Amino acid sequence: MSETRFNLSQNDLPKFWYNIAADSGIAPTPVLHPGTLEPVTPDFLSVLFPMDLIMQEVSSERYIEIPEEVREIYKLWRPTPLIRAVRLEKALGTTAHIYFKYEGASPVGSHKPNTAIPQAFYNKIAGTKALTTETGAGQWGTSLAMACNFFDMALEVYMVKVSFDQKPYRRIFMETFGAQVFASPTDRTNYGRSLLAENPENTGSLGIAISEAVEVAAMSGGTKKYGLGSVLNHVLLHQTVIGEESLKQMDLAGEYPDVVIGCVGGGSNFAGIATPFLRENLKNGQRTRLVAVEPTATPSLTKGVYTFDYGDTAKMAPVVKMHTLGHTFMPPGIHAGGLRYHGMAPMLSGLVNAGLVDAIAVKQRETFEAALMFTRTEGIVPAPESAHAVRAAIDEALDAKAKGEKRVILFNLSGHGHFDMVSYEKYLNDGLEDYEYPAEAVAEAMKDLPQVG
Predict the structure, then answer these.
(1) What are the backbone angles phi and psi of residue 376, rounded to the nearest 5°?
(2) Among 49, 188, 248, 312, which lies 20 to 30 A Cα-Cα from 436?
(3) Residue ranges per domain, the chain?
(4) Which residues lie below 8 Å from residue 120, measured CB to CB, with a gap of 6+?
(5) Residue 201 and residue 11: Cα distance in Å, rounded?
């Protein structure tokens, strides 16, 4: 074939985000106050978020217009390319056609600016002076640091300590944009100090970092708001520019995907590429399989329970219904920091529970094996998180080969791994181990769930 890259012009940049809540048929579950376990009010949420984002969070409108100020910044890197991985196909000897949407083309190397820019924009027009946030792998923190820089707002980032230590260049990248970055748990918050008193060597978790960022925002007297990189509806909504572009690009390629794949930690990049294709399944008779891929070390979809749980470890964030490993979950130090969260986006959890999305879990070593194969054929080093989608795409292609099928596979390469060389070094030197989170640990964690009637 001659064409392997399918590019859109800036004129093709989506003008609307797509809201799957309009078409899924899944009734929204209530968001509960962490103290009273009663449905939250906009006043409670306004401590953390500006009203525009709160309204997006609860919206049932099918399409929400992207502000022109946001679209102008999106044009720095969007539309991102769709690429057919012909060298990977050849190496596998597969009958499948493999395409990937490359979100690593953004200035910070991941899909996260798709929501960081609108979050910063809506906070700016609401008069917010500064934002707080957490980050695991550092991609979200870097993205929000860039966004806050563009809108002249200060940012405090609480970075999971194990990632802070593993990825110093991510910290420096954030600081280059003007953000302050702290290894979580810190001595800057009441919750952080309590954890360090119990265990000075605490390596942190996304749940802990969220607690610290939420505490700082909630106690700021309204001067600081909180930005979240995944999980909530408005975050997943902003990511749908990925799937909307992909639909146009698959049309340019003259094919339509039989399967769409994305890695999942909180759910944003997967929802971003998958929900526009789910709309086509639900509204226009398409039959694309949608596959969410998580690590066996943090298997919230494949081993977690679909129930109400706190969004953070300190029980300060709202209680939502989601697939969860329990808010007390302490993740192993796997090399996919962005996938180490205890829960999954409520919207995505509902789609999985309804059978509209499939979920699988893959091991760490086989994930890096796939990443190396992709690197050596396509020339792009995937982020460890994104490599989970690469693994699943390769497995799909090998399955098509075994069955003699022509299968069209599309996956979201949600970021590059240029700041993850320590992880690759450990894999190359046999320093990575597989880990499967035990079902008994999940059962034990369920004893500490909020008692929702």
Answers:
(1) -80, -10
(2) 312
(3) 5-12+67-109+234-448
(4) 131, 144, 147, 148, 150, 151, 153, 227
(5) 51
Give the CATH class of 5-12+67-109+234-448: alpha beta
Lookup: tokens for 375 = 């690197």
Contact call for residues 396 and 254 (beta carbons, < 8 A): no
| Cis peptide bond N-terminal to 185, omega within 30 | yes
Q: Is 68 exposed, middle or buried, given 0-12, 13-18 or 19+ CB atoms closer than 10 A?
A: exposed
In 312-394, DSSP assigns E strands to: 319-324, 358-362
Ordered mean pLDDT values, 10 residues apiece, the chain (453 residues): 91 98 93 92 90 95 98 98 98 98 97 98 97 91 98 97 88 97 96 96 89 94 94 96 98 98 96 98 98 95 95 87 91 65 94 98 96 98 96 98 97 95 92 88 90 84
How far apart CA 446 and CA 55 sit, in angstroms, is 31
In whole angstroms, give the CA distance from residue 289 to residue 280.
11
Identify the CA nearest to 91 among candidates 282, 439, 372.
372
CB count in 10 Å sphere of residue 297: 21
- Token pair for 298: 């943090």
pTM, two decimal places: 0.95
Taking CA atoms, 95 is separated from 266, 319, 405, 409, in Å, by: 32, 46, 6, 11
DSSP 196-241: HHH-TT----HHHHHHHHHHHHHTTTTSEEE--SSSSHHHHHHTTH
52 SS3 class = helix
H helix or E strand, kind and range, residue 393:
helix 384-403
